[in-house]
Amino acid sequence: MEIWINPACSKCRSAISVLDAEGAEYTVRRYLEDVPGEEEIRAVLERLGLEPWDITRTQEEAARELGLKEWARDASTRDRWITALAEHPKLIQRPIITADDGTALVARTEDAVQEALSRSKG
C-alpha cells in the first residue's frame, strides 16, 4: 500500500494517523517532491475508477491560472487534464492510497482510509 501525501495537509496527516493506529504497512510518497508522471497518473486514475477532473483541486492558484474551471470534462480533453496534473502536482487531490488489491481511493475521510485498509488486507 502506498499513500500519496502533502505533509502540510491535515487530511494527509489524519490518514497517516489512522494507518499507524491500525499498524498498517505502507509507503509514503510525498508527491510534490516525487512527482508522478502522466503514465503513472493514468494508472492511478484507472485504479481509482475516476477521471482526471475528479481528482483535481480546482481552488488552487495554479488551477485559476490555467483556467481549469472552463476546461471541458470529456474524452477530448482528458490528456490535457492529465498533463496539467503532472506539471502542477499541487492540483492532485490528496491523500490517495493505492491498495494492495489493485484499487485506489482518495482517502479524505477516516472511512475511506479504513476501506483502503480492508482492501489491502484481502
TrEMBL record:
- Name the InterPro entries on file: Arsenate_reductase-like (IPR006660), Thioredoxin-like_sf (IPR036249)
SUPFAM superfamilies xref list = Thioredoxin-like
The highest taxon in the source lineage is Bacteria
Report the family membership.
Belongs to the ArsC family.
Give the protein's recorded name: Arsenate reductase
Q: Which species does the entry assign this protein to?
A: Streptomyces bungoensis
